[in-house]
Amino acid sequence: MTDNAHTDTTRRRFLGGAATAVAGLALAPGVLLHKVAQARPADEPVSSAVRWGMLIDTNKCAKGCSDCVNACAKEHGLTGHGRPQTDAQWIRSVDLRDKQTGYTQTLPLLCQHCEHPPCVDVCPTGASFKRADGIVLVDKHICIGCRYCMMACPYKARSFVHETIDDQLPHSPRGKGTVESCTFCVERVDTGRTPACVEACKAENHNAMIFGDMNDPASEISKQLKKYNSRQIRADLELNTGVRYRGI
Fold first, then answer.
1. Which residues contact 108 (CB under 8 A, 6 or more apart)?
2. Hey, what domains does the chain have and what are their CATH numbers?
3. Of 15, 7, 8, which Cα lies nearest the Cα of 42?
4. Of 13, 68, 83, 177, which has the maximum CB count within 10 A?
């Protein structure tokens, strides 16, 4: 099999949401991934008829709140090592301050799941890719850790795994020497659930996050986007992000 054929096969496997890898597959020296759990039946591929997206109302984000960050870490086994500059953080809390008025607000920042993702454009192996339903992912089995995608991302939403991972979760494989970022909790989405951050925010009655199909006019996110003004971060880049914000 040629390299191109191998890459196409791997990407199709992920696009169908049914990626399976040999348990303990070695990606590179010191890089091991557990078997990936099948997220959805192979005969139910994702469709471009759906565009998954998230609306975040920063007016409802309490300063100092870390519920969404903690939920993400728990869902994906993001164990910290006490080094903020290198620890993986798929969603982080950012404080914005108006220099003129002094007004500050907090907002969660994560992969924006762009329609035209720069990370995909620069990836030399095809490891960074966008599913038909708009979710941007990294195929860890062909990621070579070059970090071009990290440099291309205008949101600094990707992390590099510096440490050996011993306690991976089957639904969220991680490996030293690979790049990773928010997946919109694809393992949940493909089984009809919402991302862990959204669920945690709702459980605490903050309700600052809405997740759903942006292509469905009957979905709550579509209704909210139509009714109220929202913004994209760096809209000037014309990436058509899947994450929208209200209140910034």
1. 56, 61, 68, 69, 91, 92, 93, 94, 197, 209
2. 3-246 (3.30.70.20)
3. 15
4. 68
The CA distance from 105 to 77, in Å, is 28
- pLDDT: is 12 or 160 the higher one? 160
CA dist., res. 228 & res. 244, Å (int): 11
* CA atoms lying within 13 Å on the CB side of residue 70: 7
Bridge-based pairing state of the strands 243-246 and 209-213: unpaired
pLDDT for 104-143, tens place per residue? 888 899 999 999 999 999 999 999 999 999 999 999 999 9
Beta strands in the chain (DSSP E): 25-28, 31-33, 52-57, 91-97, 104-110, 128-130, 136-138, 159-160, 179-180, 209-213, 243-246
Q: What is the pLDDT of residues 145-179, one digit of tens each?
A: 999 999 999 999 999 998 888 888 889 988 899 99
CA dist 9 and 100 (Å) reads: 53
Contact call for residues 164 and 175 (beta carbons, < 8 A): no
- In the three-class reduction of DSSP (H, G, I as helix; E, B as strand; rest coil), residue 159 is classed as strand
